[in-house]
Amino acid sequence: NAGVMQNPRHLVRRRGQEARLRCSPMKGHSHVYWYRQLPEEGLKFMVYLQKENIIDESGMPKERFSAEFPKEGPSILRIQQVVRGDSAAYFCASSPTQRESEAFFGQGTRLTVV
Amino acid sequence: DQQVKQNSPSLSVQEGRISILNCDYTNSMFDYFLWYKKYPAEGPTFLISISSIKDKNEDGRFTVFLNKSAKHLSLHIVPSQPGDSAVYFCAAILTGGGNKLTFGTGTQLKVEL
Question: Are strands A10-13 and A109-113 parallel, antiparallel or unpaired?
């Protein structure tokens, strides 16, 4: 059973470009969480999705950021018109239930905006 | 507003000795606490957890202690091994309120030979 897969592992974007981060949850997991870790900080919750639904997006910046978890395929975190401050490690976690305490984390995508 | 705090950014311990990592929280509604271990360029890996109805949970070399009145928890690793060198994150969850994890800023543990 493969773990949570995130790709790409590293992503470099110029300011103003779009970044798309993908997360394939573990088999059988229908709950996905996205976290962002800025340098020297802990992980900060961004959004919680269940298949085709956004359950909690209280941690998402109001502009430029969006997330989806379609019926088929991976969850996508999309950042439009990236700025230098978006440079961070983005982690995805998945769980089989709504209990996030049971979630497993992916290896993360390190986004660098130049 | 940092609701979960790890005030020691780093800790150095000799192999074989005890490592004690500390975590404080401000939200008394948190009812479940977890410790994660993170190696560079990898995601956090769950280590051990404790419910607020307990004050101690032990798993092999790892023990977590919870002091609810002080809003403080600690992770004890004994004996410490070089492979334990990693960043350790404390996290708290409000199981009845959204279930999202609130993380501390992490403590870098270095176990020296």
Answer: parallel
The Cα–Cα gap between A67 and A76 comes to: 6
CB-CB under 8 Å, A42 with B101: no
Residues 6+ apart with CB under 8 A from B77: B18, B19, B20, B21, B61, B62, B84, B109
Residue B93 to residue A12: CA distance in whole angstroms: 33
Share of chain A above pLDDT 90, in %: 81
Distance, in angstroms, between A97 CA and closest chain B CA? 11
pLDDT tens track for B35-61: 999 998 899 999 999 999 999 999 999
Instruction: Tell me whether residues A45 and B102 touch, CB distance under 8 A.
Output: yes
How far apart, in whole angstroms, are the C-alpha atoms of residue B16 and residue A11? Answer: 40
The separation between CA B58 and the C-alpha centre of its own chain, rounded to angstroms, equals 13
Question: In this complex, do B102 and A99 lie within 8 Å of one another by their Cβ atoms?
Answer: no
Across A16-36, average pLDDT: 95
Token pair 């009845």 is found at: B96
Chain-wide mean pLDDT for chain B? 94
